[in-house]
C-alpha cells in the first residue's frame, strides 16, 4: 500500500474551498474533488470506484490492489476536515455490481466507521445500479435538496441545479510552452460535474464531443485540481487532447 499511501499523505485537505454560486446556491469546490455545501452540511463525492483493481483482476488484468484503501484514506481525510452531517456519493461508488461483496473486512469496517453519526446516501450509477450489500446508508436513483438535484449521469436536457459525476471531467491547458492535464470541476453556473474521487480513475477532456450537449460551446469554466488549491480557467483557454 506504500505507493498510494505516501502520495495521499502528502496532500493537504484543509477545509478551504473555492466558493461558487450554483443555480443560486452557494457551494464550495475542494481540491480533493469533493463538493462542500455548508448550508446543508453536505459533502458530495463522485465516482469512487471501490474495488476497481479486483474487478480487473477477475478478468485477468492485474493491477496493484491498493485502490480501495487509498480512496478510503483520501475520503477519511476529507470527512475529518469537514465533518459533514450528510454525505452523498454520486454513483459508481463500486466498480461493478459485486464490488461491495468483495470489500475486504478491514475496508468494510473502515467505511462503516466513516458512516457513523451522519446520513449517507448512495446514488446508483451505471457501474453499480443496485444497493451495496451489507453497508449502511440509503440508496436512491437521484435526490433533490433545496435548489439542487444530485444524480450520477448528467441529464441530456438543460438541468439548472444539477450536480452529477459519471464523465470524469479533465482539462488540458498550454502555458509557457508546457501542456498540463488535470482532473477538474466543470460548470456553467447552472449545473456542475464533479471529477472522479477514486484514485484509480481516468478523465475525459471537457472538449470531447460527449460534453457538447451539457454546456454551451466555450461558455463554461473549469477548476483544475492542484496541490492544495484549484486553478480556474474559462473554456476558451483550454485545448483538446
What keywords describe this structure?
5 helices, 31% strand, Purple Acid Phosphatase, chain A, domain 2, 241 residues, ten-stranded mixed beta sheet, disordered N terminus, seven-stranded mixed beta sheet, alpha/beta
Layout: helices, strands, pairs:
Layout: H1 2-10, E1 18-22, E2 25-29, E3 35-37, E4 42-45, H2 52-57, H3 67-82, E5 86-89, H4 99-102, H5 105-115, E6 119-123, E7 138-140, E8 142-145, E9 148-151, E10 162-164, E11 169-175, E12 178-187, E13 191-193, E14 204-205, E15 221-225, E16 230-234, E17 238-239
Parallel strand pairs: 4-5, 5-6, 6-7, 9-10, 10-13, 11-14
Antiparallel strand pairs: 1-2, 2-3, 3-4, 8-9, 11-12, 11-17, 12-13, 12-15, 15-16
Helix pairs in contact: 1-3, 3-5
Structure description:
- Helix content is 19%, strand content 31%.
- It is α/β, with parallel strands linked by helices and 241 residues long.
- The chain has a single domain (2-239), classed as Purple Acid Phosphatase, chain A, domain 2 (4-Layer Sandwich), CATH 3.60.21.
- Strand 15 and strand 16 form a beta hairpin.
- The radius of gyration is 17 Å and the shape is globular.
- The model is unreliable at 1-12 (pLDDT under 50).
Termini Cα gap: 31 Å
Counted up, domains total 1
Mean pLDDT: 90
Rg calculated over all Cα atoms: 17 Å
Write the CATH architecture name. 4-Layer Sandwich
What's the shape? globular
CATH topology term? Purple Acid Phosphatase, chain A, domain 2
Amino acid at each position: 500500500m506504500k505507493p498510494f499511501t505516501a502520495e495521499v499523505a502528502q496532500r493537504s485537505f484543509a477545509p478551504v474551498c473555492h466558493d461558487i454560486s450554483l443555480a443560486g446556491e452557494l457551494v464550495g469546490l475542494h481540491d480533493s474533488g469533493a463538493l462542500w455545501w455548508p448550508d446543508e452540511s453536505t459533502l458530495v463525492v463522485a465516482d469512487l470506484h471501490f474495488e476497481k483493481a479486483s474487478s480487473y483482476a477477475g478478468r485477468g488484468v492485474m493491477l496493484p490492489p491498493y485502490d480501495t484503501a487509498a480512496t478510503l484514506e483520501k475520503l477519511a481525510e476529507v470527512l475529518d476536515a469537514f465533518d459533514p452531517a450528510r454525505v452523498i456519493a454520486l454513483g459508481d461508488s463500486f466498480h461493478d455490481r459485486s464490488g461491495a461483496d468483495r470489500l475486504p473486512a478491514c475496508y468494510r469496517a473502515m467505511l462503516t466507521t466513516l458512516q457513523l453519526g451522519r446520513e449517507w446516501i448512495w446514488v446508483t450509477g451505471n457501474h453499480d445500479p443496485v444497493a451495496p450489500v451489507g453497508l449502511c446508508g440509503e440508496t436512491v436513483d437521484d435526490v433533490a435538496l433545496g435548489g439542487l438535484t444530485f444524480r450520477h449521469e448528467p441529464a441530456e436536457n438543460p438541468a439548472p441545479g444539477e450536480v452529477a459525476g459519471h464523465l470524469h471531467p479533465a482539462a488540458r491547458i498550454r502555458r509557457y510552452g508546457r501542456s498540463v492535464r488535470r482532473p477538474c470541476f466543470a460548470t456553467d453556473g447552472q449545473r456542475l460535474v464533479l471529477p472522479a474521487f477514486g484514485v484509480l480513475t481516468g478523465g475525459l477532456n471537457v472538449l470531447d464531443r460527449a460534453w457538447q450537449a451539457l454546456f454551451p460551446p466555450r461558455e463554461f469554466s473549469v477548476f483544475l485540481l492542484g496541490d492544495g488549491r484549484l486553478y480556474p480557467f474559462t473554456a476558451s483557454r483550454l485545448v483538446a487532447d
